[in-house]
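ok trying this again, last paste got cut off
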Amino acid sequence: MTTLAHTATPWRDDASVIGLVGLAHASSHFSHLLLPLMFPVFIKTFGLSYSELGFLMSVFFVVSGMGQASAGFVVDRFGARPVMFGSLLVLALACIVASFAQSYAGLMVAAAMLGLGNCSFHPVDFTILNQKVSPPRLGYAFSAHGLTGNLGWAAAPVFMVGLSTWLDWRAAYVGAGLVFLGIFLLLLWQREAIQTQATHHQQAAGSEHTLAFLKIPVVWWCFGFFLLSTMTLAVVQSFAVSILQAMHHVTFEAATMTLTAYMLCAALGMLVGGFVAARWPRQSDKVVASCMTVAALLMALCGSGWLDANATMVILAATGLAIGVGGPSRDMMIKKATPKGATGRVYGMVYSGLDVGFAMSPLIFGVFMDHGWYGATLLGAAVVLLMSVGVALGVGRRTVHG
């Protein structure tokens, strides 16, 4: 009966939910790059090393990861909408704090606040999508969700670098805060479309306790996949601009636009990946593994030093396309591993692996960067991505067998 009701949902209603959730997701990804994009400025202004900058991002993602694992329980208990609203307001406030930072300590406070604001979006988003979007359209919903996230990443370099060049970096953070506030007001206006039902733990099928899902091995395999695959993404976001400048002596603007091209290619990949996920939902783990393998090989080629500047920038952008195609199948893979009634908790825990990967990677590869091992940084990221391939296939085996 539920399936029939969902199938009868008008496309316009599903599209409205997908669009609003996608906008919120874009704002989350936008927040990921607010600090690393200003690394060259922070080096000049505050005299910071790459290791110190990497630790700044580790603070962001440690706070986000701890918050994300907890946010899933809050979402299941109180609903997704109020949590989403609170997160957007915290992000807006964090940008204002960043704009007034006078030292490394001030940047640290801003990083922690940005991490707190970012933490809830995955459990919030997937709870809304799984409750509000009809099942036959979930593959497309996951595709749009991933696409808008990558568009948020792609918009950040253009917005932050553009505004800081026109005015200064402090004005850029004020502008970012106004963006978050504007998104909050729009979602508040359309609040009925994203209203969800709270899920009490007693209602979770096959679960007598709210933490019972932690005993399911496949949940931890999913966590491991996100941790490893995200470590590679963190290298691209945090250090790709500096690597391109150091290895190939390209301009800051050209290197930054390469990062934007990577994110746009990933967004295009997400669009294609939505059709792939809808066409082969049962092979989601194999789709993910194939895409990550191609991306790892391309990234290793960039790190080898065999290519000139232009070829390296093109191939690095193409890496985003390969990863993007696997995105919707990745979300479908997680959905298949999620027990009924525990969406917020499972997505919160699994996607906290993303934050752990983002937190670990800058600490490890920041040391590489400080030693001038620029090519090795990309090669190391490629090796970690290859490790995630085996984990994705492990998720598929354990989902199939129970």
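PB: full thing came through this time. The radius of gyration is 20 Å.
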